[in-house]
Amino acid sequence: MNKQIIKRTSKRGFSLVELAVVIVIIGVLAAFAVPKFRDSVERSKASEAYNYLSSVRAAQERYQSRQGTYADDLANLDIQMASSKHFTVGAIEAGGTGSLEDSWKLTLTRKDASAGYGDYTIVFTQDGFNEDDSSISNLPTINPMSTS
Question: What residue spans of the chain are helical by DSSP H?
Answer without folding.
Answer: 2-10, 16-67
